Structures are given as structure tokens and as C-alpha cells.
């Protein structure tokens, strides 16, 4: 697939983000998307061809590979990138709705269509919750599917049609494990950034509401 769409989406969201949100966009774009396209894709490119077992029983290698790698690391990472970026579309659509509404009424209805307040604040908070939720779900999937973020050098397989317990060897296990740890670290960093931005916006909005009530009370 072309990653240009995802890049354009992140660039568009960057205009309406807070400072923490811009850091999140930079982390996703530089440390996740670019690393995926430039390096990680090539590491897992021939993972099935380079998976070897010490028997030549027809079908044995295929079923063993499917048993230990039910979903490819790289495809799961790509799906994760898409899913954690998609909630940002909610913000883009909401801003576009505001702009169209102003055009339709031919008057200024908002201080700025991209200013995070009112309904757009709710949309932004929902997008942050969804992004954090997707990150946690995918980390859990990686943990369950790959036995605690590990890529062993040797795996023992006794799945039919293998005649007995056979030894199978994974290519470049150290390199793959390093990138798996990198994936987990960047995902964890994004969760921290999302939670920080969520807390910041809620705190900021709470202070704003309190000050408004305080001013009204004293007027």
C-alpha cells in the first residue's frame, strides 16, 4: 500500500493538535512509519522462505510456521499504525464540518474552526481515548501471539503432518527481537503521550469552567 495517505492525514491533524499532540505525530511519523517503511519491512520480507525445519516432510514447515507466526509481525505492525492513526480522522472531519457550516451560513460562527473547544474538544478527547485503546489492544495481541515479545532462535514443533517433534529455526531472531522491542517502546511512548494530552485537556477545560463560574458568581 501507499503510506502517502497516512502521512497526509498526520500532517493535517498536526494543524489542530496541542503541543503534546504534535510530539505524538512526530513520534508516529519518524519513529514508527519511517522505520517501518525504511527498515522493518525488509527484515520480515522473506520470513517464511527463511524459516527452516530439520525434516522435509511435505507441509510440515508450512503448518509449523503458521503455528508460531499466526499473524506476521510486520502486517500486525502495519495494521496497528493504521488503526492508531484513524481516530485522528474524527478531528479532521469535525473541523471540515465547522468550515462547511460557516460557508453555508456565510458568517463567522467560531473564533477558529480548528480551535479545540466545545464539540471539537469532545471529538478530540474521544480520538485520544480510541488511540490509547488501540495501542493497548495491539500490545496485548503482540504479547499473546509472540509469547511475551520474544523471538526464539529455535522452536520445537509437533503439529501434524510433522512425523514427530521437529526443530525449526527462525532467521535473524536477534534483529527481529530488537525491532519488536523498539515497536513496544514506541507504542508505550505513544500511550504516555496520549494519556498526558488527555489529562492536560481535561485539566485545562476544568480550570476554564471553574474560572467562568467564579467570575459569574462575583459579578
TrEMBL record:
<dbReference type="Pfam" id="PF00029">
    <property type="entry name" value="Connexin"/>
</dbReference>
<keyword id="KW-0303">Gap junction</keyword>
<keyword id="KW-0472">Membrane</keyword>
<feature type="transmembrane region" description="Helical">
    <location>
        <begin position="178"/>
        <end position="203"/>
    </location>
</feature>
<feature type="domain" description="Connexin cysteine-rich">
    <location>
        <begin position="134"/>
        <end position="201"/>
    </location>
</feature>
<feature type="transmembrane region" description="Helical">
    <location>
        <begin position="77"/>
        <end position="97"/>
    </location>
</feature>
<dbReference type="InterPro" id="IPR017990">
    <property type="entry name" value="Connexin_CS"/>
</dbReference>
<dbReference type="GO" id="GO:0007267">
    <property type="term" value="P:cell-cell signaling"/>
</dbReference>
<comment type="function">
    <text>One gap junction consists of a cluster of closely packed pairs of transmembrane channels, the connexons, through which materials of low MW diffuse from one cell to a neighboring cell.</text>
</comment>
<protein>
    <recommendedName>
        <fullName>Gap junction protein</fullName>
    </recommendedName>
</protein>
<feature type="transmembrane region" description="Helical">
    <location>
        <begin position="21"/>
        <end position="39"/>
    </location>
</feature>
<comment type="similarity">
    <text>Belongs to the connexin family.</text>
</comment>
<dbReference type="InterPro" id="IPR038359">
    <property type="entry name" value="Connexin_N_sf"/>
</dbReference>
<keyword id="KW-1003">Cell membrane</keyword>
<feature type="domain" description="Connexin N-terminal">
    <location>
        <begin position="42"/>
        <end position="75"/>
    </location>
</feature>
<dbReference type="GO" id="GO:0005922">
    <property type="term" value="C:connexin complex"/>
</dbReference>
<keyword id="KW-0965">Cell junction</keyword>
<keyword id="KW-1133">Transmembrane helix</keyword>
<dbReference type="InterPro" id="IPR019570">
    <property type="entry name" value="Connexin_CCC"/>
</dbReference>
<dbReference type="InterPro" id="IPR013092">
    <property type="entry name" value="Connexin_N"/>
</dbReference>
<comment type="subunit">
    <text>A connexon is composed of a hexamer of connexins.</text>
</comment>
<dbReference type="GO" id="GO:0005243">
    <property type="term" value="F:gap junction channel activity"/>
</dbReference>
<dbReference type="InterPro" id="IPR000500">
    <property type="entry name" value="Connexin"/>
</dbReference>
<feature type="transmembrane region" description="Helical">
    <location>
        <begin position="118"/>
        <end position="143"/>
    </location>
</feature>
<keyword id="KW-0812">Transmembrane</keyword>
Amino acid at each position: 500500500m501507499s503510506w502517502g495517505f497516512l502521512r497526509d492525514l498526520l500532517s493535517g491533524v498536526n494543524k489542530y493538535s496541542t503541543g503534546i499532540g504534535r510530539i505524538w505525530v512526530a513520534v508516529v511519523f519518524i519513529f514508527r512509519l519511517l522505520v517501518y517503511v525504511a527498515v522493518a519491512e525488509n527484515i520480515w520480507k522473506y520470513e517464511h522462505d527463511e524459516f527452516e525445519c530439520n525434516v522435509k516432510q511435505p507441509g510440515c514447515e508450512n503448518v509449523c510456521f503458521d503455528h508460531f507466526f499466526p499473524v506476521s509481525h510486520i502486517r500486525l505492525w502495519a495494521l496497528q499504525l493504521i488503526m492508531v492513526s484513524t481516530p485522528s480522522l474524527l478531528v479532521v472531519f469535525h473541523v471540515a464540518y465547522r468550515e462547511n457550516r460557516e460557508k453555508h451560513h456565510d458568517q463567522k460562527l467560531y473564533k477558529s474552526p480548528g480551535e479545540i473547544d466545545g464539540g471539537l474538544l469532545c471529538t478530540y478527547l474521544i480520538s485520544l481515548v480510541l488511540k490509547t485503546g488501540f495501542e493497548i489492544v495491539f500490545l496485548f495481541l503482540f504479547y499473546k501471539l509472540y509469547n511475551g515479545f520474544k523471538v526464539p532462535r529455535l522452536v520445537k514443533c509437533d503439529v501434524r503432518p510433522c512425523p514427530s517433534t521437529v526443530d525449526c529455526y527462525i532467521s535473524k531472531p536477534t534483529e527481529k527481537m530488537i525491532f519488536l522491542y523498539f515497536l513496544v517502546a514506541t507504542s508505550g511512548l505513544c500511550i504516555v503521550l496520549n494519556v498526558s494530552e488527555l489529562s492536560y485537556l481535561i485539566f485545562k477545560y476544568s480550570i476554564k469552567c471553574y474560572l467562568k463560574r467564579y467570575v459569574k458568581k462575583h459579578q
